[in-house]
């Protein structure tokens, strides 16, 4: 079983890297890019088949380590 | 059908003649793994086949040299039982393909070379060459390389204290990234690579092996064409965190008495490290490749032997030490595996799950590799630029401002502020001066370090250019008060199969050799990077010289910062007005022409000895060597560093431009409050000395001209690079 | 007066701060490996700069979960002073001992240079040897020093006088130009409510003798010596 975790900055937190990418995309001539936010994608291989248990384990991982909840949100996707 | 087709041979970079030699040595057709091993061992990068003949002519000995070229790094005695260990190495091709990782792994590799010898790295430097600023790739490459160097060095906690950066269109398709590391070791605890002791365990430590950079060493020896941008996957990825752990673990192990020999796995990875250790020790090796820690599934013996995964070391331990050594690597959470043993066969036997996957004789590969005496042509001499032929186009102060704000001379602060140059707490002279100085920890001694080369001189006259690179390193070390001890050379040239290019290499070696002998400044380590060209266009020949000198007491040294109280500026050395290949000619007249300034090695030594004496006797605390841009630029750099202005005199006769902007060698500017003593000392040393100006105020005022406020000059000098780098992304 | 310096894998200013403590306080500190679970008897805990765990994931995040950090948090809560420098500040934040977050510098680059900053309070054991409002020069060397906290937290920090250092120009003006990394309110260092836990991005251990071209960092160690000896 796989868990896919997306960690993104909360709205309202300045994202200097996203801003730089946004600027670069404009420089490359991509018109119509309104905003860019950068985040992290983390893939975790898990043993077992209990999706709910997996979800709660990964949630704990996010709270304890993977995300800094002061500035970041996370989003968990369990792929059986 | 054989797996070794002509195409396979060609794709491994072996010529027909070389393959015939392979068949002779093997006595049979090699398998693919064996062919791959020949290919990397005989690549230019590992075998120095085009350059050996000439490298052998370089002087490598002095009473203070503990280890010259041939080991992972050179070692010199710096007194009190301590040694400095250093080397410079190129990572040009990988940095062009992937600037961040290419530069980062270059820095990682050179640090490994140094700590393999038992030294703790204490200073990093980088000699960088990029294409023209207006070339569409330059900005991206520069920013990636700088970030990569910082990313690795900063994380390692080794200060990056110096280096140089040039721009020139000849590097448009082939940048140069030369990284140098200086380390400190106990002189009686240096580690070497010669394996010994039949039956002793061969141990692998560090990161796991993946498919990184397979064929990196052969890539670094082939010319680029536009298709090589497709080669991206063969670039290695650096992991400075692991290397930091590896450094600490190795130094911890080295403090015990368990290591027989150690070698880092750099270019050509396990192949070159195991062959070099065995060849130097005159022993055989049996490797159990299935025991190598692997990061990826399904790896083959071929891939394991050729992988260039970073942050790995190969060691031979004393028998019975495996467990104690493993405990150290366990503490640092690094892989540790016994992957073989030494034998008396003088052969490399590769085992794969109990079966022989390759079996090669060691000496013919490692020592009897091809050596070429490539045909070469001498570079035609150019005429000297007659100073009288150069007309003044604008006020000198305006010329000064133009030069100081040009890509050639503008401040490199934007670069070095991205490097941690203070970690370890011993950086005494920070970047931006002549040589950087790092204190030898817990002593009053200091190591002065610098990298130098003026490629446009080398192109115009390889012999004089080679001399000049060594002489400038000597001057930069002298200018802080250090005694120059030894150099490392990083020879970056084009395709040696072209006689014109080979002639540049030969000429530069001659010039370097002459200068080293005259200045008592031997070569103790080095690296050669050839085939630096794209679509047939060679780079400017660039023999980058890394110099190391010793300050007996960091309390007695000079910096370039002008102080108002040291009012009198004196130029030591002789000016004849050499404008050939000068920064003036390039920027103001837009041409690179003429013969470069000749190098008078006797004068270099005489003036250098005088300058060190003046600093040692405390007569001079402010000193700067005169190089790119000439006298006025040297004075201006001193003014900016100290934030003190100066009045500058003009010569009574002759060309003002040649006086102010000529790049004559063997000159320094010193500032003193006791001009008589300095002038007297110069006279007794038979050195020409002239008062060229006086410190004070907030502007540089050239005789007969309006003052140029330092603030204006600073804006031009500091502004160029940040402005350039913040322009729209290409 | 005996300090303990915690060494994480990837710490690289541990020796520098060890030297500074020894030089300014006269006693060599304990060096404590992160895998220990107990602290030696100590008057001060120092979390040094560096790249613990390579700064992978987030600076300080993995170090904050090292075994020794349970003992550090317990000791801090029981009143042992803690000084976190650079990566140490990041670890203090990740372990919840100080509020907020340290994000990538505003211009995304690693910055290593001398920086001027204003001492906002001398009412801490770390800064008693400075003057209120004094402008000091201490180098920084970081990639992620852009201090962020929500409005309420910032308000509380400001209201309680817990902002200890603020990036300023040479005259002490708090300007945007002087804000090297984009920190909210130019914050360079803060203390906890008890004023016993101090995290700062600048490196005081790098300016403790004239050969360093500055000695402003030395006063921080002198302050601590006076308070804790």
TrEMBL record, chain A:
Its main location: cytoplasm. One of its GO terms (molecular function) is ATP binding. One of its GO terms (cellular component) is cytoplasm. InterPro entries: PurS (IPR003850), PurS-like_sf (IPR036604). It is an enzyme of class 6 (ligase). Keywords: ATP-binding, Cytoplasm, Ligase, Nucleotide-binding, Purine biosynthesis. The keyword Manganese does not apply. Pathway: Purine metabolism; IMP biosynthesis via de novo pathway; 5-amino-1-(5-phospho-D-ribosyl)imidazole from N(2)-formyl-N(1)-(5-phospho-D-ribosyl)glycinamide: step 1/2. Gene3D superfamilies: Phosphoribosylformylglycinamidine synthase subunit PurS. Part of the FGAM synthase complex composed of 1 PurL, 1 PurQ and 2 PurS subunits. NCBIfam families: phosphoribosylformylglycinamidine synthase subunit PurS, PRK05974.1. This is Phosphoribosylformylglycinamidine synthase subunit PurS. The gene is purS.
UniProtKB/TrEMBL annotation, chain B:
It catalyses: N(2)-formyl-N(1)-(5-phospho-beta-D-ribosyl)glycinamide + L-glutamine + ATP + H2O = 2-formamido-N(1)-(5-O-phospho-beta-D-ribosyl)acetamidine + L-glutamate + ADP + phosphate + H(+). The active site is at 45, 91 (proton acceptor). Residues 198-352, 567-697 form the PurM-like C-terminal domain. Substrate binds at residues 90-93, 112, 236, 308-310, 529. Keywords: ATP-binding, Cytoplasm, Ligase, Magnesium, Metal-binding, Nucleotide-binding, Purine biosynthesis. Residues 70-184, 432-550 form the PurM-like N-terminal domain. NCBIfam families: FGAM_synth_II, PRK01213.1. Belongs to the FGAMS family. PANTHER family: PHOSPHORIBOSYLFORMYLGLYCINAMIDINE SYNTHASE SUBUNIT PURL. Monomer. Part of the FGAM synthase complex composed of 1 PurL, 1 PurQ and 2 PurS subunits. This is Phosphoribosylformylglycinamidine synthase subunit PurL. It comes from Thalassospira profundimaris.
TrEMBL record, chain C:
Signal peptide: none annotated. Keywords: ATP-binding, Cytoplasm, Glutamine amidotransferase, Hydrolase, Ligase, Nucleotide-binding, Purine biosynthesis. Its EC number is 6.3.5.3, 3.5.1.2. The keyword Disulfide bond does not apply. InterPro entries: Class_I_gatase-like (IPR029062), PRibForGlyAmidine_synth_PurQ (IPR010075). Pathway: Purine metabolism; IMP biosynthesis via de novo pathway; 5-amino-1-(5-phospho-D-ribosyl)imidazole from N(2)-formyl-N(1)-(5-phospho-D-ribosyl)glycinamide: step 1/2. GO terms for molecular function: ATP binding; glutaminase activity; phosphoribosylformylglycinamidine synthase activity. The active site is at 86 (nucleophile), 203, 205. GO terms for biological process: 'de novo' IMP biosynthetic process. It is found in: Cytoplasm. Part of the FGAM synthase complex composed of 1 PurL, 1 PurQ and 2 PurS subunits. Part of the phosphoribosylformylglycinamidine synthase complex involved in the purines biosynthetic pathway. Catalyzes the ATP-dependent conversion of formylglycinamide ribonucleotide (FGAR) and glutamine to yield formylglycinamidine ribonucleotide (FGAM) and glutamate. The FGAM synthase complex is composed of three subunits. PurQ produces an ammonia molecule by converting glutamine to glutamate. PurL transfers the ammonia molecule to FGAR to form FGAM in an ATP-dependent manner. PANTHER family: PHOSPHORIBOSYLFORMYLGLYCINAMIDINE SYNTHASE SUBUNIT PURQ. This is Phosphoribosylformylglycinamidine synthase subunit PurQ. The lineage of its organism: Bacteria, Pseudomonadati, Pseudomonadota, Alphaproteobacteria, Rhodospirillales.
